[in-house]
Design brief:
By secondary structure, the protein is mainly alpha-helical. It is built from 7 helices and 2 strands. The termini are far apart.
């Protein structure tokens, strides 16, 4: 595995290079900056996904997003038939449905998906398209 620091740079700044109010200080500061890909490649994706699932607050998430976002989440996790039913519900009903059903599917919002994500949207993407029957 690649070192997480391979894409990192170290920056040392003297007092003169920092904020003008600190110019009289005799301190040099250091910081390291790493690219996101370097950090991501050093993290086990499956372990991170498992940790995210444990800490994901579905109630807070679904209360914070639009009904359309909830419908799309249901579509990804459970399919079009369930999504159509949720689309007909008011937001409170959609939230209740999502909280009762989506955690069981291992669904996570797109913003929390990393390389090791194995939830329903990932599985659906792997399924081959159905072949059309010849006449």
């Amino acid at each position: 595995m690649r070192s997480a620091t391979s894409s990192c740079t170290n920056n040392s700044l003297s007092a003169e290079q920092r904020w003008p109010a600190e110019r009289n200080a005799e301190v040099t500061t250091s910081s390291a900056t790493c690219s996101g890909s370097a950090v991501a490649s050093a993290i086990n994706g499956k372990a991170l996904t498992a940790a995210l699932r444990e800490t994901f607050d579905a109630k807070d998430y679904f209360n914070s997003v639009s009904r359309a976002t909830i419908v799309e989440a249901v579509r990804e996790a459970m399919g079009d038939q369930h999504a159509s039913a949720v689309a007909k519900m008011d937001k409170a009903g959609a939230i209740k449905f999502a909280l009762a059903n989506l955690p069981k599917t291992k669904w996570l919002p797109k913003q929390l998906r990393v390389a090791g994500y194995d939830g329903p949207a990932k599985k659906a993407a792997k399924k081959p398209a159905a072949k059309k029957a010849k006449k």
